[in-house]
Design brief:
about 300 residues, mainly alpha, 60s Ribosomal Protein L30, Chain: A, 8 helices, 3 strands, about 60% helix
Length: about 300
């Protein structure tokens, strides 16, 4: 039986296409296997970092504001990982399908492969930033970020006396030094530092004739304000007062920063009123000086 040249040509083309497709399938399989290794590593990093945030929050070494900011950052990386997972799954499903099915999905396969390559290229970028987040959580613990400042506030007071400001700055010094050191360690990363200052008050009331009561009534614009509301305002004033002193102390450290133009700090100053500063302490009294405190938390995150 004679076979025409046209038939021979068609058979040769089919063989060539089959060989090319077989090569493509092998290439897809290699890319999927490599991607799955990255998937596992990145998922573990996301899970471990989330767990560390939860552990630090329960241990009261970070507050909810810091935890939320870190978790929001992790969520962005997790969303990228989810997109990567979907691209890998699509290539795994369709890249090994029949030749006809492959041709039908070729455009989306090419797009998925391109996304996988971009994600893999950014692996060092992500690792650097996750390392930064985890190191910040560890530095916070090691540097004892939580300060008991009751010595600076008497009952019904919110301003640090001039003769105690230098003592307060000395108390802040280790925290600020660790913050500057950490900031400089990641001089190559576009980042933002957040300082959270939480003021607290004890459960005592106020004499209507006292100076602080007059001040609080004026600020609240409420002559009938209950003591809880007045203590909430008092705790807010304490947080602001300490925040101002912290900002002044940081300004003195500007020459120690490697890049002044990259200094980006956000201060969050909140009054917590008569809330207990620590869940670990179970024997607080109404006029307990351990409740007249300001707690300080900091974190530096990649933008």
């Amino acid at each position: 039986m004679k076979i025409s040249i046209t038939t021979w040509y068609g058979m040769a083309c089919m063989l060539l296409l089959t060989a090319c497709y077989s090569g493509k399938r092998a290439q897809f399989q290699q890319q999927v296997e490599a991607a799955k290794t990255i998937q596992a590593a990145d998922q573990k990093t996301v899970n471990d970092t989330r767990q560390k945030v939860d552990d630090r929050l329960k241990a009261e070494v970070i507050d909810q504001n810091i935890a939320d900011s870190i978790n929001n950052k992790i969520a962005r990386y997790a969303a990228d990982l989810d997109s990567f997972n979907k691209a890998v799954q699509f290539v795994d499903d369709k890249g090994t399908a029949s030749g006809k099915d492959y041709r039908r999905n070729k455009t989306q396969l090419d797009s998925s492969i391109a996304f996988m390559e971009r994600y893999k290229t950014g692996q060092n970028y992500r690792l650097r930033r996750f390392t930064m987040i985890n190191e910040a959580l560890d530095v916070i613990v090691n540097q004892q970020h939580m300060f008991d400042l009751a010595a600076f506030f008497g009952p019904g007071k919110y301003e640090i006396p001039e003769d105690k400001k230098s003592i307060a700055q000395e108390a802040f010094a280790p925290l600020i030094d660790s913050l500057v050191k950490f900031y400089n360690r990641y001089a190559d990363v576009d980042k933002k530092a957040t300082l959270v200052i939480l003021g607290f008050a004890d459960g005592s009331g106020f004499s209507p004739e006292s100076e602080i009561a007059t001040t609080l009534v004026q600020l609240l614009k409420d002559p009938n304000a209950p003591k809880e509301k007045m203590n909430q305002k008092l705790s807010e004033l304490r947080a602001i007062n300490i925040g101002d002193l912290m900002e002044f102390s940081l300004d003195q450290k500007i020459p120690q920063f490697k890049s002044i133009k990259d200094i980006d700090f956000v201060f969050i100053e909140l009054g917590k009123g008569e809330e207990y500063p620590s869940k670990k302490i179970t024997d607080y009294k109404t006029d307990d000086e351990r409740r007249r405190v300001v707690l300080l938390f900091w974190n530096i995150l990649p933008k």
